Structures are given as C-alpha cells and as structure tokens.
Predict the 3D structure of the following.
Amino acid sequence: EAVASLLPPTLRPELRLKWPNDLLHDRAKLAGILLESSGVAGAEVAWVAIGMGVNLATHPEGLEYKATSLAALGVSGVTPDDALTALDKAFEHWLGVWRGQQGFAAIREAWLKRAEGIGGPIVVRLSSGALEGIFESLAPDGALQLRLADGTLQLVSAGDVFFGPPAPGPAR
C-alpha cells in the first residue's frame, strides 16, 4: 500500500506480492523486507531486526530475479522521505488491524488478494535443497502451502520462491 500510494493508478494493478517478503511490479522486484531474529531454543525470540527497501531511483541488474525501480516505471522525484511517510501511514493502518479484533487473519486475506503465483507451479529453494509444486495458498500462520506432485501438502516457513517449472538441467 505504501508503494501503491506513490504510483499513478494505472501502475497499481501490476503490484503483486511474492511470498514471503517481496513486492513485484510485472514480476520484477520493486521492494522487499528482510527479518532477522535471535532467541534461545524453545524460548521466546530475544530480538527482531526488520529491514525494508524500495528501489526508488535505481535498481540492480544481473540478478536471478528481474528488478525494477519507481524511476524505471516512469515515477521520478520520489524521495526517501516521501517513501517513509507512505510507509508510516500504511504500517500504522495494518498495525491497527493486527492489534484489533481482526488480527493476522485479515492481513493474510489482504495478502492473498495480491499474491503472485497462486495456483501455479513454483520452485522453493531451501537451505537443504529445493521443493517443486503448486503454490496452493497461505496457512493460517503465513507459511506457504505447497502441493507436491504426490499430492502431499507441504508447509514452508522460509525459502526462496521461483515462479514456473524448474529450468531444465544439463543433458545427461
């Protein structure tokens, strides 16, 4: 919502969310969130650091994912202060939803309306390998629900999502 408020209405429908933490415009990464946390095994989280970034004036090239920026979309002159003001307004709204009677369920529902790739094939790259399947939905706790080829529903709490079938490997 913060980024959408910085775009002209004609560009807003192309904004989609890529699980778990990226904002895409026409499948190119425009913004993202990174969470890091620490705690003692079996105990509560001791701390959480949240980083958020929006490509305002430039964007990286030559990455695994295509990236874009507001400037590349024809939206120039957006300052970091403009983006921060928009983020503050959107964050306040959704924090109110979280704390109110609606909780995470309302956030999940809104996220699903903007989700990219639901119902389609994805590859989820994990630290232990990769999983392939159909992106079915989000679990009530926000985990990705991946339907594997054997029909099993696999819940994924962290991973890197790639859309479409896996790229063919080298000939053997």
